[in-house]
């Protein structure tokens, strides 16, 4: 099972000791075992995953990467059933005192986002013009070097960043309950059997406790976003 994903996007997919691991990889491994195959991850720009370009070209069977299910994306790709409830987090440097989006706007703080993501759409939808970065690591570095004052990112990614002592000066401004759910992506109209296998693996994992164990291994203590 070939999987297109943009690396690194810890804790969902990233390289460790020469192997790509993470929560998304572990969940897809469950489906792969049912099919008697293994998972191979191909590092791919997120933009070409969400538009279906890589799937339509046959480069991969599945697209992954903490991808929120949206009506716009459903025009180009098919999704599995939701496998993760997502929230967004605003992360700021030590000098930032703002505690809300309105205060960030009033203070004319510079904001950053990951290109082509729902986090970026959230900011633009609230009247911001964020500086866009192609990679999660580049976004974080933008905050480190003072290119931007505040960034938006999926909460589990931020939680991982804050475990690194190099980021100890950063703080969470706010958690934004955006009601997003992640799904795995498939070539539109061509992947019914594979989607069924992935959906079955997700349901079984939720039913037998594997989901919670996998979540706690890669992300942390389990809690529903609802």
Automatic annotation (TrEMBL):
Pfam families reported in the protein's UniProt record: SBP_bac_3 (PF00497)
Solute-binding protein family 3/N-terminal domain location: 2-222
Keyword field: Signal
Domain Ionotropic glutamate receptor C-terminal: 1-221
Transmembrane feature ranges: none
SUPFAM superfamilies with a match to the protein in the record: Periplasmic binding protein-like II
Signal peptide stretch: none
Annotated protein name in UniProt: Glutamine ABC transporter substrate-binding protein GlnH
Species of origin: Actinoallomurus spadix
